[in-house]
Structure formats: structure tokens, C-alpha cells
Amino acid sequence: MDKQVFNIMNLDLYYGKFQALKNINLIIEKNKVTALIGPSGCGKSTFLRVLNRMNDLIDDCHISGEVYFHQEDIYREKFDVIDLRTRVGMVFQKPNPFPMNIYDNVAYGPRCQGIKDKDELDKIVDNALKSAALYDEVSNRLKESALSLSGGQQQRLCIARAIAMEPEVILMDEPTSALDPIATLKIEELINDLKEKYTIIIVTHSMQQAARISDNTAFFLTGEIVEMDLTNKIFTTPKNQKTEDYITGRFG
Amino acid sequence: MNTSTRRKKRVDQLIRSVFLVATLLSASFIIIIVIFIVIKGITPFITNNDGLGVVNVWTFLTGTVWLKGTAFQSNLYSIGFIILNTLYIAFLTLLLSLPVGVLTALFIAKIAPKKLAEFLRTIVELLASIPSIVYGLFGIGIILTFVYNLSSVFGIQSKGGNSVLATVLVLALMTLPTITAISEVAIRSVRKDIEEGSLALGATRTQTNFKVVLTSAKSGIFAAAILGIGRSLGEATAVSLVAGNAKSGPNLGLFDITTTLTSTMLQGLKETTGVDYDIRFSVGIVLMIVILITNFILNAVKKRVGNVNVK
Lengths: 252, 311
Description:
The structure holds two protein chains of two kinds. By secondary structure, chain A is α/β, with parallel strands linked by helices. Chain A has a domain at 4-97 and 166-247: 3-Layer(aba) Sandwich (Rossmann fold), CATH 3.40.50.300. Chain A is 36% helix and 27% strand. Chain A contains ten helices and ten strands. In chain A, the strands form two sheets. Chain A has a six-stranded mixed sheet, sandwiched between helices. In chain A, a hairpin with a 2-residue loop joins strand 9 and strand 10 (224-230). The longest helix of chain A has 14 residues, at 118-131. Chain B has two domains: 1-46; 85-309, MetI-like fold (Orthogonal Bundle). Helix content of chain B is 73%, strand content 1%. Chain B has twelve helices and two strands. Chain B has helices at residues 3-46, 57-62, 80-111, 114-128, 132-153, 164-188, 192-200, 205-216, 218-234, 237-243, 261-266, 274-306; strands spanning 67-68, 76-77. In chain B, strands 1-2 form a two-stranded antiparallel ribbon. In chain B, helix 3 packs across helix 9, helix 4 (114-128) crosses helix 6 (164-188) and helix 5 (132-153) packs parallel to helix 10 (237-243). The relative contact order of chain B is 0.14. At the A-B interface, helix 2, helix 3 and helix 6 of A face helix 7 and helix 8 of B.
């Protein structure tokens, strides 16, 4: 069985002349939660956006090296980016629901893929909302604007929106940094449930969060991966002095 | 308190009163103008009009012929059909200029390369500042000929091209820059992360632009439409040159000559006196009321449409 979802080899990334990622080598395992930690500006969000090619949106961003999603190099010419993004979902730092009702938000992705059948969409929306632990709170007001939800609910809606596409991987870019502790807890519980079905890669600023929810952790510093290991190893017996300094709060 | 602070205080007070005077002056001008128009405009309905008798308000508002009988010998004025014409033309204009304007705005804001977008933005701003008489002359020179030829194709004899269609085309050209410029600002201010959210779900650029960007900007686009309608309702000069000055109506056929509230006011204004002169101010009152009501309704609709954007 193919246990590697992503295999990144010798990845360099530049914004213009500035090198944001240096020689990244990393393997992302299937059905695991991988946490990316490190101080601000160390390149972890940039790295996350390499994996669904969201960096394409930035004009002067270019990369070298190879990024394999299963056996396919996603940066080769004529690679189908749209298809990639349906298989690798993303949840952003700030909840970003569309200005539509709750139902339409979740149905958005499938509709863009051409699914029009009402019953099928109903089923997808129900399942996605249930998987995102939001169903009970919104099932009686699916036609209300998504913007009427609380911040935590909005973020779970964004997760539901990603799940509706039935992706293999969900990328999460500091998904709880704009939320209160209770909403954060709910999302963390959700992530725990989701890893049964999905591979999750999460950028986080909270060391405790990484320790609580992830299986593997990669520590980024100034564009490089300093250390990558099982999460409990990183947090108990880090091999690198810099990692130890960071997780014990001596800098960053 | 030393002298310098005291002087500062005095200067401050002086400047404040200068502002107050300026404000009062401009406010009073607006009030004076409105009062002048209202007084002039109600004269036909409350005086004897040099022996012709009082103009009937109901007939005036609902009738389908501008003047039954001859000027200076009759008081049977009506503008019911003109009100209808005006709204009809504003509606057709919007039907034409809104989609074109919004698509242009979308192109400038989201699709065009940066340099081209900058260039187009300048052009649109330039077009928005062209005086209406220039559009009117363009209308006479180009659009009338075009409409005249077009009507011949359909086997219709139009009055030298003067028509509903010509009026709508001229007004569409005039409102297009305004609608484009305002929609473009609305589209550009759509939150980037909402767009990214759509793209990250595997939506194409086009799907994102139409399903997410435009829906997010709809409140601003609506504001653009309101300004566009305001301009087509209020435009006089260019319209007078191409409308054809119909004397009865309503004029709904595209190649029929027509008339609007504004062009009616302008027509022959300099060559007339008595009730035939005053009645144009009555038309002015109606125009102001029509614009007020339209704005009121559109703003109410805008609130409902825009509601989804409010947290």
C-alpha cells in the first residue's frame, strides 16, 4: 500500500530574489496529522501552499526541486492544478466563508465540478456538515447566510466545504489562530476524528496544539527544516539544540 | 493664558465662522433653487393662467398628449406618457450598460495584465469626465446615422434616427464609464482570501470570478447601477439631441421618436412665456420626485440584496 502521500525532494522556493524555502526534503504519511511549527516568517505557510500550488497566484514566485503527490510531480508542465486542488483541500487562517447561504457554501465545490443533481448535493452537504461536527447546529437553517455564524462555526463550515470535495489531504493554515479557546478545542477534536479518513497537514503557532493533535512534527527555521520526527520525540527528546530552544520557549 | 494661545483661539473661531458661512451659503442656494422651481412649477395649477384656466393636476400626471390644442390657447398639458418614457428609457439603458459595465470592470480588475488594467482604468476615468454635450454631438453624428440605417434594414422609416434606441444608446455610452469605474472599485475590494478559498476548492478562475467575486461585490455593483440610473434620468442635453421630441405617447417601439422629462423641459424653453413656460417647471418638480422615489426604492432593494454581506 502506498503510505506516502507527498514526497518533497530538494525543494527551493523564491519570491523574486528572496529565497523563502531552502532544500526541503520531507515525506508526508497517509492518515497522519503532520504539524509544521516554527517562528513567524520561517516559511511554513509558504511550504503548505506549495502542496496545492496556491503559490501560483503570486507573480514572482518560482520553485525548483520535485514535489510528488503519490507518484506524480505536481510541478511538471501541463499538470492539472484544478484536479490537484480537488484532491488536496485547504482551510485558511481566517474563516473565509463565501457570502452565500450555508448550503451553497458547502455545495460550492461539488457544483464547480459539475454536480447538479439536487439529491446528490443534499447528501454531500449533509455528510460534510456531519463530518465537520456542524450539522446539529445548522441543520435547521441551511438557507441562512454563512456570515451569520460565529467565527468557530464559520471555520468548521470552511472545513465542511473542503470535506465536501472528498479530498485525500486537508491543508490547514493556522486554522484556530483567529478563534477563542472553546472553538479551538472543537476544531482540535474534529481534526482528531478526521485523520481516520484524511491526511492532515497543519501549520500552527501553538506548541501545545502541535503536541496535542499531531503524529509527526516538522520544525521550520528561516526556510529550512531543522528537524522532522514523531511528535512525541520532538517534544521530549529533540535531537537539535535549536529545536529544543524553540519548544522550550527560549526564542521565537 | 498667554497672548499666543489667545490669538490661536481667536484665529480658530474666525476660521470656524468662515466655514459656517460657506456652508450656509451653499445650503441656502439649494433651498432657493428648490423653492424657485416649486413656486414656478405650481403656478399653472393654482392661477388662472392669463384666462386659460387652471391646469388639472390629474390630467397633467396621467395624460398621453403633451398639449391638446395650440400653445397659448390651451391649458391641456399632460406628461403621463413622458414619465413612462423616462422610466422605460432609464430601464433599457441600465439593461445595456450594467452587464457591459460590470464585465468590463471584471476584466480590468481581475483579468487584464497590470499595465493594460492601469491604461483601461485611465480611459474609463477620462470617459466619465467628458461633458454630455460631446456625447450628444457623437449621438447626432454617429448614432443617429447608425440607428437610421438599422431601421431601414427592418423596413421601418425612423425620423432620421431620432428614436428610443438612439436615446438609449447615447445614455448607455454616458453611464457606462460611471458604472464601470464604481463596479471596478467594488470588485477590487473583494477580500482576497475569499477568492483563494474558491480557487483552493478546485474552482477555475472563471467560476471564481462569476460565482464568488461578483456575489461579494454585488452591493457595490448595485450602487453603481443606482448612480447610472440617476444619470440617465437626469441627463438633458444629449437626450434632447437624439430623442426626437415626441408630442404624444407612450413611445415604446425602439425606432419610435420619444421624449423624456428632461428633454421636454429643454424643448423651446427660450421661446415661450406664460403657462407654456411655467409648465416646464412643473415637469421639473415631477422629475425631482421621480428621481427621489427611484433612489428610495433602489436603496431599499440594495439593502436587501446587500444584507448577505453584513455580519
